[in-house]
Q: What sequence folds into this?
């Protein structure tokens, strides 16, 4: 996808800390709607602690194709977020992609949560780990965005039916 080349992270040699490109913060304003319950278009609901099944999957009177595509997108996101990449270990414990997503999102980038902020700061004190977490975060956003596009396309098709 084109946008993947536009956003990312970099390490400033002068400042010796990892930075997000500003485009990530802008993208997150829209992205949050797809993971927060209150917006009712969530593909995967974040309740800051554990993922929840979104209401979107319970809409009535949709086509079999729509239910199939949305169910598959949800399953792929759910399965992907349970993975703990082997290079993401803190205090001897693996860090799942779900934890990466929530901690970076709610610990620094949006709707600050004190517990997530504390974890974010602890991770930030480990520059190599933090760089890996930032790279993983961008990958998670890209993957989830791809699934959101699938849902959007299938929803457009559903409106035409």
A:
């Amino acid at each position: 996808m084109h946008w993947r080349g536009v956003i990312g992270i970099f390490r400033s040699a002068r400042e010796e800390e990892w930075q997000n490109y500003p485009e990530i913060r802008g993208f997150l304003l829209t992205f949050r709607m797809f993971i927060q319950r209150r917006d009712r278009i969530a593909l995967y609901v974040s309740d800051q602690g554990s993922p929840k099944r979104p209401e979107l999957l319970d809409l009535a009177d949709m086509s079999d194709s729509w239910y199939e595509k949305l169910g598959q997108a949800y399953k792929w996101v759910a399965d992907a977020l349970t993975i703990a990449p082997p290079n993401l270990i803190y205090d001897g414990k693996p860090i799942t992609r779900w934890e990466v997503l929530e901690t970076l999102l709610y610990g620094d980038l949006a709707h600050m949560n004190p517990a997530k902020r504390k974890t974010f700061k602890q991770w930030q004190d480990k520059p190599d780990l933090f760089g890996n977490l930032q790279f993983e975060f961008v990958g998670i956003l890209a993957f989830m965005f791809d699934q959101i596009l699938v849902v959007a396309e299938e929803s457009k098709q559903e409106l035409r039916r």
In short: The radius of gyration is 17 Å. The chain has a mean pLDDT of 81. The first helix runs from residue 22 to 31. The longest strand covers residues 9-12.
